[in-house]
Amino acid sequence: MRRHAFECPVCQSEQSILLPDDDTSATSSCRECRSELEFLPDSDAVKVVPAGPPAPAGTRRPPAQRPGAAGESPAAPATVPDDYPRYRGPQLREQSKAGGTLAIALLILAASLTGLATAWGIHAMPEEYDGRQEVRITVEVANTTGPLANVTLLVDGASANLTAGAPGIYTTMVSSGMRSLEVAAAGHRNATSEVFIAEQDPGMDPTAGVNLFSFTLLEGKGGATEQEQPVQGLWRGMFSWCPFLMLAFSLIGLGGAWAAWQRTSFLAAQVGALFSALALGFLLVGPVLGLIALILLQRQKHAFSFKTGEHPPP
Questions:
Q1: pTM for this prediction
Q2: Do residues 279 and 249 make contact, with C-beta atoms less than 8 angstroms apart?
Protein backbone atom coordinates (compact mmCIF):
# COMPACT_ATOMS: atom_id res chain seq x y z
CA MET A 1 0.00 0.00 0.00
CA ARG A 2 1.15 3.53 -0.75
CA ARG A 3 -0.27 6.88 0.27
CA HIS A 4 -1.29 9.19 -2.54
CA ALA A 5 -2.03 12.90 -2.13
CA PHE A 6 -4.71 14.27 -4.42
CA GLU A 7 -7.01 17.21 -4.97
CA CYS A 8 -10.76 16.56 -5.12
CA PRO A 9 -11.93 17.50 -8.64
CA VAL A 10 -15.29 18.61 -7.22
CA CYS A 11 -14.47 20.80 -4.20
CA GLN A 12 -10.67 21.24 -4.81
CA SER A 13 -9.82 20.19 -1.26
CA GLU A 14 -6.45 18.52 -0.70
CA GLN A 15 -6.58 15.05 0.81
CA SER A 16 -4.70 11.76 0.82
CA ILE A 17 -5.63 8.11 0.41
CA LEU A 18 -4.00 4.69 0.67
CA LEU A 19 -3.90 2.90 -2.72
CA PRO A 20 -2.73 -0.62 -3.60
CA ASP A 21 0.73 -1.03 -5.14
CA ASP A 22 -0.61 -2.67 -8.31
CA ASP A 23 -2.35 -0.91 -11.21
CA THR A 24 -5.90 -1.65 -10.11
CA SER A 25 -8.39 1.18 -9.86
CA ALA A 26 -10.10 2.13 -6.59
CA THR A 27 -13.07 4.14 -5.47
CA SER A 28 -13.62 6.30 -2.41
CA SER A 29 -15.50 9.41 -1.36
CA CYS A 30 -14.34 12.93 -0.63
CA ARG A 31 -14.26 13.69 3.07
CA GLU A 32 -15.42 17.27 2.42
CA CYS A 33 -18.13 17.14 -0.25
CA ARG A 34 -18.95 13.39 -0.01
CA SER A 35 -18.65 13.01 -3.77
CA GLU A 36 -17.81 9.55 -5.07
CA LEU A 37 -14.32 9.53 -6.65
CA GLU A 38 -12.56 6.99 -8.84
CA PHE A 39 -8.78 6.61 -8.78
CA LEU A 40 -7.36 5.42 -12.17
CA PRO A 41 -3.65 4.46 -12.43
CA ASP A 42 -1.93 6.40 -15.29
CA SER A 43 1.72 5.10 -15.58
CA ASP A 44 3.43 6.70 -12.54
CA ALA A 45 0.52 9.05 -11.76
CA VAL A 46 -3.00 8.52 -10.53
CA LYS A 47 -5.90 10.23 -12.22
CA VAL A 48 -8.79 11.26 -9.96
CA VAL A 49 -12.19 11.65 -11.62
CA PRO A 50 -15.74 11.90 -10.23
CA ALA A 51 -17.46 8.52 -10.22
CA GLY A 52 -20.98 9.98 -9.95
CA PRO A 53 -22.92 13.21 -9.32
CA PRO A 54 -21.69 15.21 -6.31
CA ALA A 55 -23.63 14.84 -3.07
CA PRO A 56 -24.92 17.94 -1.23
CA ALA A 57 -22.55 19.27 1.39
CA GLY A 58 -23.13 17.98 4.90
CA THR A 59 -25.05 14.89 3.73
CA ARG A 60 -24.15 11.24 3.53
CA ARG A 61 -24.02 9.31 0.34
CA PRO A 62 -27.32 7.86 -0.80
CA PRO A 63 -27.83 4.17 0.00
CA ALA A 64 -27.28 3.11 -3.58
CA GLN A 65 -23.74 4.56 -3.49
CA ARG A 66 -22.65 3.01 -0.16
CA PRO A 67 -20.86 -0.31 0.02
CA GLY A 68 -23.25 -3.16 0.48
CA ALA A 69 -26.24 -1.27 -0.98
CA ALA A 70 -28.28 -2.33 -3.99
CA GLY A 71 -26.13 -2.85 -7.04
CA GLU A 72 -23.03 -3.70 -5.02
CA SER A 73 -21.88 -6.80 -3.25
CA PRO A 74 -23.55 -6.99 0.21
CA ALA A 75 -21.40 -6.59 3.27
CA ALA A 76 -20.46 -9.76 5.09
CA PRO A 77 -22.76 -10.52 8.03
CA ALA A 78 -21.35 -9.93 11.49
CA THR A 79 -20.01 -13.07 13.09
CA VAL A 80 -18.92 -13.93 16.62
CA PRO A 81 -15.14 -14.45 16.85
CA ASP A 82 -14.06 -18.04 17.51
CA ASP A 83 -12.14 -17.05 20.63
CA TYR A 84 -15.13 -15.22 22.15
CA PRO A 85 -16.22 -16.90 25.45
CA ARG A 86 -19.42 -18.87 25.02
CA TYR A 87 -22.39 -18.39 27.39
CA ARG A 88 -22.53 -21.31 29.82
CA GLY A 89 -25.44 -20.19 32.06
CA PRO A 90 -29.07 -21.33 32.12
CA GLN A 91 -31.25 -20.87 29.08
CA LEU A 92 -32.39 -17.28 28.72
CA ARG A 93 -36.10 -16.65 28.38
CA GLU A 94 -37.76 -13.45 27.30
CA GLN A 95 -39.97 -12.00 30.00
CA SER A 96 -43.61 -12.03 29.03
CA LYS A 97 -45.08 -8.53 29.06
CA ALA A 98 -48.63 -9.77 28.67
CA GLY A 99 -48.32 -12.13 31.64
CA GLY A 100 -47.14 -9.39 34.00
CA THR A 101 -49.85 -6.91 33.05
CA LEU A 102 -52.49 -9.64 33.13
CA ALA A 103 -51.60 -10.43 36.75
CA ILE A 104 -51.83 -6.73 37.61
CA ALA A 105 -55.20 -6.48 35.86
CA LEU A 106 -56.48 -9.42 37.89
CA LEU A 107 -55.30 -7.81 41.15
CA ILE A 108 -57.06 -4.54 40.32
CA LEU A 109 -60.16 -6.44 39.23
CA ALA A 110 -60.25 -8.43 42.48
CA ALA A 111 -59.81 -5.27 44.59
CA SER A 112 -62.61 -3.54 42.66
CA LEU A 113 -64.98 -6.48 42.99
CA THR A 114 -64.41 -6.67 46.74
CA GLY A 115 -65.21 -2.95 46.87
CA LEU A 116 -68.48 -3.54 45.02
CA ALA A 117 -69.39 -6.38 47.37
CA THR A 118 -68.61 -4.27 50.44
CA ALA A 119 -70.62 -1.33 49.08
CA TRP A 120 -73.64 -3.57 48.62
CA GLY A 121 -73.16 -5.06 52.09
CA ILE A 122 -73.12 -1.63 53.75
CA HIS A 123 -76.13 -0.48 51.73
CA ALA A 124 -78.12 -3.55 52.79
CA MET A 125 -76.85 -3.61 56.39
CA PRO A 126 -79.84 -1.86 58.05
CA GLU A 127 -82.30 -4.26 56.44
CA GLU A 128 -80.03 -7.26 56.96
CA TYR A 129 -79.67 -6.56 60.70
CA ASP A 130 -83.35 -5.75 61.19
CA GLY A 131 -84.82 -8.04 63.84
CA ARG A 132 -81.91 -10.50 63.89
CA GLN A 133 -81.24 -10.12 67.62
CA GLU A 134 -82.95 -8.85 70.74
CA VAL A 135 -80.55 -6.32 72.27
CA ARG A 136 -80.66 -4.92 75.81
CA ILE A 137 -80.37 -1.13 75.73
CA THR A 138 -80.07 1.44 78.50
CA VAL A 139 -81.90 4.77 78.42
CA GLU A 140 -80.89 7.74 80.59
CA VAL A 141 -83.54 10.45 81.02
CA ALA A 142 -83.06 13.79 82.78
CA ASN A 143 -84.14 17.40 82.65
CA THR A 144 -82.27 20.58 83.50
CA THR A 145 -82.47 19.83 87.23
CA GLY A 146 -81.71 16.11 87.41
CA PRO A 147 -82.87 12.55 86.58
CA LEU A 148 -86.51 11.96 85.73
CA ALA A 149 -88.78 9.20 87.02
CA ASN A 150 -91.97 7.80 85.57
CA VAL A 151 -90.99 8.12 81.92
CA THR A 152 -92.41 6.34 78.89
CA LEU A 153 -90.32 4.93 76.02
CA LEU A 154 -91.81 4.40 72.57
CA VAL A 155 -89.87 2.17 70.13
CA ASP A 156 -91.10 2.65 66.57
CA GLY A 157 -94.31 4.08 68.04
CA ALA A 158 -94.96 1.13 70.36
CA SER A 159 -94.63 1.37 74.14
CA ALA A 160 -91.62 -0.55 75.55
CA ASN A 161 -91.45 -2.36 78.88
CA LEU A 162 -88.93 -0.40 80.96
CA THR A 163 -87.06 -1.71 83.96
CA ALA A 164 -86.03 1.10 86.32
CA GLY A 165 -82.60 1.02 87.89
CA ALA A 166 -80.78 4.01 89.36
CA PRO A 167 -82.72 7.32 89.22
CA GLY A 168 -83.34 8.29 85.59
CA ILE A 169 -81.84 5.04 84.20
CA TYR A 170 -83.99 2.42 82.49
CA THR A 171 -83.33 -0.77 80.54
CA THR A 172 -85.39 -2.64 77.96
CA MET A 173 -85.06 -5.15 75.10
CA VAL A 174 -85.38 -4.00 71.48
CA SER A 175 -84.79 -5.65 68.11
CA SER A 176 -81.59 -4.86 66.21
CA GLY A 177 -81.73 -2.57 63.16
CA MET A 178 -82.84 1.02 62.57
CA ARG A 179 -85.13 2.12 65.41
CA SER A 180 -86.99 5.29 66.35
CA LEU A 181 -86.87 6.05 70.09
CA GLU A 182 -89.19 8.57 71.73
CA VAL A 183 -89.12 9.44 75.45
CA ALA A 184 -92.04 11.13 77.20
CA ALA A 185 -92.59 12.40 80.76
CA ALA A 186 -95.41 14.38 82.36
CA GLY A 187 -94.89 18.16 82.19
CA HIS A 188 -92.10 17.85 79.60
CA ARG A 189 -91.74 17.96 75.83
CA ASN A 190 -91.01 14.61 74.20
CA ALA A 191 -87.52 13.82 72.83
CA THR A 192 -86.85 11.57 69.83
CA SER A 193 -83.81 9.98 68.25
CA GLU A 194 -83.23 7.77 65.20
CA VAL A 195 -80.68 5.08 66.13
CA PHE A 196 -79.10 2.02 64.55
CA ILE A 197 -78.78 -0.91 66.97
CA ALA A 198 -76.24 -3.49 65.80
CA GLU A 199 -75.89 -7.07 66.93
CA GLN A 200 -73.73 -7.32 70.05
CA ASP A 201 -72.61 -9.53 72.89
CA PRO A 202 -75.43 -9.96 75.44
CA GLY A 203 -72.98 -9.17 78.26
CA MET A 204 -71.69 -5.96 76.68
CA ASP A 205 -71.40 -3.01 79.07
CA PRO A 206 -73.50 0.09 78.30
CA THR A 207 -71.67 2.11 75.65
CA ALA A 208 -72.81 5.58 74.58
CA GLY A 209 -74.38 5.55 71.14
CA VAL A 210 -74.23 1.74 70.87
CA ASN A 211 -76.56 0.43 73.58
CA LEU A 212 -76.75 3.49 75.87
CA PHE A 213 -78.88 6.45 74.80
CA SER A 214 -79.29 9.69 76.77
CA PHE A 215 -82.20 12.16 76.56
CA THR A 216 -82.64 15.58 78.15
CA LEU A 217 -86.30 16.66 78.29
CA LEU A 218 -87.36 20.30 78.22
CA GLU A 219 -90.06 21.41 80.64
CA GLY A 220 -93.32 22.74 79.26
CA LYS A 221 -95.51 22.01 76.27
CA GLY A 222 -94.57 21.80 72.60
CA GLY A 223 -93.46 19.52 69.86
CA ALA A 224 -90.89 16.77 70.28
CA THR A 225 -87.20 17.67 70.08
CA GLU A 226 -84.76 15.67 67.96
CA GLN A 227 -81.65 14.70 69.95
CA GLU A 228 -78.46 13.32 68.41
CA GLN A 229 -76.82 10.30 69.99
CA PRO A 230 -73.05 9.65 69.96
CA VAL A 231 -71.78 7.45 67.09
CA GLN A 232 -75.20 7.44 65.41
CA GLY A 233 -74.23 10.26 63.06
CA LEU A 234 -71.31 8.13 61.89
CA TRP A 235 -73.62 5.19 61.27
CA ARG A 236 -76.06 7.27 59.22
CA GLY A 237 -73.24 8.87 57.25
CA MET A 238 -71.79 5.46 56.48
CA PHE A 239 -75.14 4.14 55.28
CA SER A 240 -75.82 7.26 53.20
CA TRP A 241 -72.46 8.03 51.53
CA CYS A 242 -70.10 5.10 51.82
CA PRO A 243 -71.91 2.76 49.40
CA PHE A 244 -71.95 5.40 46.65
CA LEU A 245 -68.31 6.40 47.15
CA MET A 246 -67.20 2.77 47.20
CA LEU A 247 -69.27 2.09 44.08
CA ALA A 248 -67.65 5.03 42.25
CA PHE A 249 -64.13 4.01 43.35
CA SER A 250 -64.75 0.40 42.33
CA LEU A 251 -65.96 1.44 38.87
CA ILE A 252 -62.81 3.53 38.39
CA GLY A 253 -60.83 0.47 39.48
CA LEU A 254 -62.58 -1.66 36.85
CA GLY A 255 -61.52 0.87 34.21
CA GLY A 256 -57.94 0.63 35.45
CA ALA A 257 -58.09 -3.17 35.26
CA TRP A 258 -59.20 -2.89 31.62
CA ALA A 259 -56.36 -0.46 30.84
CA ALA A 260 -53.83 -2.81 32.47
CA TRP A 261 -55.13 -5.81 30.52
CA GLN A 262 -55.13 -3.88 27.22
CA ARG A 263 -51.77 -2.20 28.05
CA THR A 264 -53.00 1.06 26.54
CA SER A 265 -52.47 3.56 29.36
CA PHE A 266 -50.05 3.32 32.26
CA LEU A 267 -51.65 6.35 33.96
CA ALA A 268 -55.16 4.87 33.73
CA ALA A 269 -53.91 1.61 35.22
CA GLN A 270 -52.26 3.52 38.09
CA VAL A 271 -55.41 5.53 38.82
CA GLY A 272 -57.51 2.37 38.70
CA ALA A 273 -55.20 0.54 41.11
CA LEU A 274 -55.25 3.49 43.52
CA PHE A 275 -59.04 3.82 43.56
CA SER A 276 -59.52 0.06 43.82
CA ALA A 277 -57.51 0.26 47.06
CA LEU A 278 -59.54 3.27 48.26
CA ALA A 279 -62.76 1.30 47.71
CA LEU A 280 -61.86 -0.57 50.95
CA GLY A 281 -63.14 -3.90 49.75
CA PHE A 282 -63.59 -6.20 52.76
CA LEU A 283 -61.85 -3.41 54.74
CA LEU A 284 -58.28 -4.75 54.29
CA VAL A 285 -58.35 -7.25 51.41
CA GLY A 286 -59.09 -4.69 48.70
CA PRO A 287 -56.49 -2.13 49.84
CA VAL A 288 -53.77 -4.80 50.03
CA LEU A 289 -54.55 -6.06 46.52
CA GLY A 290 -54.64 -2.51 45.13
CA LEU A 291 -51.31 -1.57 46.72
CA ILE A 292 -49.66 -4.74 45.38
CA ALA A 293 -50.94 -3.82 41.90
CA LEU A 294 -49.48 -0.30 42.26
CA ILE A 295 -46.07 -1.69 43.19
CA LEU A 296 -46.05 -4.20 40.33
CA LEU A 297 -47.11 -1.52 37.86
CA GLN A 298 -43.80 0.29 38.37
CA ARG A 299 -41.96 -2.88 37.29
CA GLN A 300 -44.16 -3.30 34.20
CA LYS A 301 -44.13 0.30 32.99
CA HIS A 302 -42.25 -0.71 29.83
CA ALA A 303 -45.14 -2.95 28.77
CA PHE A 304 -47.48 -0.01 28.16
CA SER A 305 -47.50 1.69 24.78
CA PHE A 306 -48.99 5.11 25.70
CA LYS A 307 -50.53 4.93 22.21
CA THR A 308 -53.89 3.27 21.97
CA GLY A 309 -53.82 0.24 19.76
CA GLU A 310 -50.05 -0.22 19.51
CA HIS A 311 -50.25 -3.29 21.71
CA PRO A 312 -53.20 -5.53 20.89
CA PRO A 313 -54.95 -7.46 23.67
CA PRO A 314 -52.84 -10.42 24.88
A1: 0.57
A2: yes
